[in-house]
Amino acid sequence: MSTRAALILAFVLAPSVAMQAQTARTVRDGVYTDAQATRGSAIYKEKCASCHGPTLGGSLAPPLAGDAFAANWGGPLSAILDKIQLTMPANAMGTLTRAQAADVLALMLQTSKFQAGRAELSSEDAALKAITLPGAQAVARPPAAVASAFPPAGNMAQLMRGVLFPAANMIFNVQRYDPATPPKANNQSKEAGFSWVDWGAGVYTGWEIVDYAAVALGETAPLMLTPGRRCENGKPVPVNDPDWIKFSNELYETSKAIYAAAQTRSQEKVSDITERLADMCLHCHQVYRDKRISRTPDDPQNRAARCSK
Fold first, then answer.
1. What is the pTM of this model?
2. Neighbouring C-beta atoms of residue 171, cutoff 10 Å
3. Ordered DSSP codes for 108-125
4. Which helix (H) or strand (E) holds 86?
């Protein structure tokens, strides 16, 4: 490369490198002001303290500061602000303005002992995505003997149909129905018949049901690896097979992505991520379930071949 070309390349790249250095920030860099945290304190006392405790240490709801909070919410501040504005307070979701949510977040950072700075925490999404909250140290895993203390209660088909199928169906249902729309009265009547997706109608909000379904998917991932579980055909579940482990991890990661999308309370975003959910199911089914020995997957010949490659 000639000297002139090298100088031109350096000139082009320099602003990009400098911009990355300016935007790659953490909450340790003084991203809020004390005055903003004071405003947040007044909002918190009125809207949040009854559930999260007077000192943000948790009560009816989880703590909003310290290691316990960072362990769950380590990452960009945009996700935390979305959670505050769109899903809190629990009895009046979405009533806080974006600016009010930023003030409450400033209080949370102050309570977590992160130093204040000269500029207020922005409520703009682009700015918040550039600031991260470091996650706390991962909690040590329990010994294997403790984790597998309970033997499987059902076979793989029962686990799939009892937990994964209804949970996934609730999430796919977002493609057709906005979870923010209250269910019709006949959904709760006996004449409507039993439904996979209306089990919480009248008890929980639509978005809460989507949250719970995403969590159910993630919590099922370790159950896929429970030693001793059998498939419907009696074969042992291949819990040590690298592909089976890979697909179980994919289930867990997909559930986290769905839950994060649900926190935006956007039907469009959850609908978009259902494609990832469908792909996740397909990846495992193609290897371990849909053998296509005969015309239909439920043919006894296909069932006999399941849980093996």
1. 0.74
2. 27
3. HHHHTTPPP-SSPPP--H
4. helix 77-87
Asked if 131 contacts 76 with a C-beta cutoff of 8 angstroms, the reply is: yes
Cα–Cα distance measured from residue 83 to residue 273, given in angstroms and rounded to the nearest whole number = 18
Nearby residues of 120 by Cβ (< 8 Å), 6 or more positions away: 32, 33, 35, 36, 102, 106
- Contact predicate 199/212, CB 8 Å: no
CATH 1.10.760.10 residue ranges of the chain are 25-133
Q: How far is CA 176 from the centre of its chain?
A: 21
Please state, in angstroms and rounded to a whole number, the distance separating the CA atoms of residues 150 and 6.
64
- Token digits of residue 24: 């790659």
Instruction: Find all residues with CB under 8 Å of 35, minimum gap 6, and list them.
Output: 120
Q: Which CATH superfamily is domain 25-133 in?
A: Cytochrome c-like domain (1.10.760.10)
Contact 228, 238 (CB under 8 A): no
CB burial readout 246-271, b (16+ within 10 A) else e: ebbebbeebbeebbbbbbbbbbeebb
Under 8 Å between Cβ of 26 and 134: yes
Highest mean pLDDT among 22-26, 146-150, 212-216: 212-216
Q: What is the DSSP letter of 230?
A: B
Q: How far apart are CA 294 and CA 271, in angstroms?
A: 33
Write out pLDDT tens, residues 252-274. Answer: 999 999 999 999 999 999 999 99
Distances (CA, A) of 22 to 30, 53, 89, 107: 13, 36, 33, 24
Q: How far apart are the C-alpha atoms of 178 and 262, rounded to whole Å?
A: 12
d(CA 275, CA 217): 15
Type of residue at 107: L
